[in-house]
Design goal:
The chain has 111 residues and is of the alpha+beta class. The chain has three helices and seven strands, in the order H-E-E-E-E-E-H-H-E-E. It starts with 5 loop residues before the first helix and ends with a strand.
Length: 111
């Protein structure tokens, strides 16, 4: 889920997730056929790079992405670009908190 407004946005996300869980919807990421890893959101797609900005000691930090499809929404808009990207303009700052987890040699993003 995309970051959408600090603490108020976090509370809205939390309430949506609780509502989904009450309906029996579970969050899993398939690692391999028949293997599920709760709490993960998957691996990066081809052509998309992800990184964690300013990770804390547990490895959690802001998820940042670099990909052509992300950058296209900011072409010719310097104000939006400055607000949404790292200072060097290499990474889009999602506002989401994530970390990397490793399972059998594969790196997954997790929340």
């Amino acid at each position: 889920m995309h970051g959408d407004g600090g603490a108020a946005g976090d509370e809205q996300k939390r309430l949506r997730i609780i509502a989904w869980l009450k309906r029996g919807i579970k969050f899993f990421n398939a690692i391999a056929s028949g293997v599920l890893r709760p709490g993960t959101v998957g691996t990066s797609f081809i052509g998309i790079k992800n990184t964690i900005l300013d990770p804390n000691p547990d490895g959690k930090g802001e998820l940042a992405t670099s990909a052509r499809n992300v950058f296209m929404g900011y072409v010719w808009d310097e104000v939006k670009t400055r607000a949404a990207f790292t200072e060097d303009q290499d990474w889009y700052k999602s506002g989401d908190i994530a970390k990397y987890v490793f399972y059998k040699g594969t790196k997954f993003l997790a929340y």
